[in-house]
Amino acid sequence: MSTPISARLERRTGEDRTATVEALRERLRGMQQAEPQHASPTLDEAATAGLDEVVQWLRAGRAHSIESRSLALACMGAAMPAGAWGAIVGMPDLGIEAARDLGVPIDRVALVPHPGRSWLDVVASLAEAMPVVLAASPGRVAPTDAARLAARLRQASSTLLIAGPWPNAATVVRSVRADWQGLDDGDGRIAAGSIVVETVAGGAPSFARIPIAGDAAAAAAVAAAARESGDELLHQPAA
Q: Which of the four, 10, 56, 90, 171, has the lowest number of CB atoms within 10 Å?
């Protein structure tokens, strides 16, 4: 049984329906024009310049997850106070010269390549003695163990950088794009490069563009950071 409303709708002619639709469209267009338009910034517009923009989020007394090992090494080099010592844990295949090229003062870094099952104790002990510790993620970590380590970090005011995932990390850093100039369609020499880095610390993500000089070591760092994060390299030929 049809209602009075449905009966009236059925009696409308095709012209009436068309007129009603057009009137609604005009009303919507007027509402859209009245609303201010806010264009979302592009990645390039949102990215500030320099590694310092990333390091400022890596606050002392907390653990921070950095998805790329190359990026983690660069952050460590920038975060270490002048003249201070640091430590790198769980990276037996670390390239000393590559770390140096990424800014790590390797002469003032204690290396513990094989912490074994004592990973948590080793990291906690080093964090109590040094302001910055970089460690490869050990994989799965029990929430209680992560909480105990977090308490010791807060007490020591030490910064722990984890190359890889970490539960309840205060900050998550990852590279989202890599660019370089001067490749000349694959046959040229790199003149300059940069990586765009995303930092998430509980709120909206922030972005920073890290410029890299155009020598072989820097080029390798750009490529490694992009490969480790699974991102596509965007080649831009030099002008």
A: 10
Between the CA of residue 12 and those of 1, 4, 16, 87, what are the distances in Å?
A: 19, 13, 6, 79
**Using CA atoms, how far apart are residues 34 and 222, in angstroms rounded to an integer?**
46
Beta bridge partners of 87: 110, 133
Neighbour tally for 38: CB within 10 Å? 6
Residue 161 forms beta bridges with which residues? Answer: 64, 134
Long-range contacts of 183-192 (CB under 8 A, 24+ apart): 183/235, 183/236, 183/237, 183/238, 184/237, 184/238, 185/237, 186/235, 188/237, 188/238, 189/214, 190/214, 190/218, 190/219, 191/238
Give the Cβ contact number of residue 195 at 10 Å.
28
How far is residue 65's CA from residue 169's CA, in Å, rounded to a whole number?
Answer: 6
DSSP 86: E
CA–CA distances in Å: residue 160 to residues 29, 70, 155, 169, 213: 53, 16, 13, 10, 27
Tokens of 23: 């009137």
pLDDT in tens, 8-19: 545 555 556 666
Pairing relation of β-strands 233-236 and 109-112? unpaired
Report the chain's terminal Cα–Cα distance, integer Å: 74
Do 176 and 198 meet the contact criterion of CB atoms below 8 Å apart?
yes
Tokens of residue 44, six digits: 């390039």
pLDDT tens-digit readout, 89-140? 999 999 999 899 888 999 999 999 999 999 999 999 999 999 999 999 999 8
User: Which residues lie closer than 8 Å to 1 by C-beta, 6 or more apart?
Assistant: none
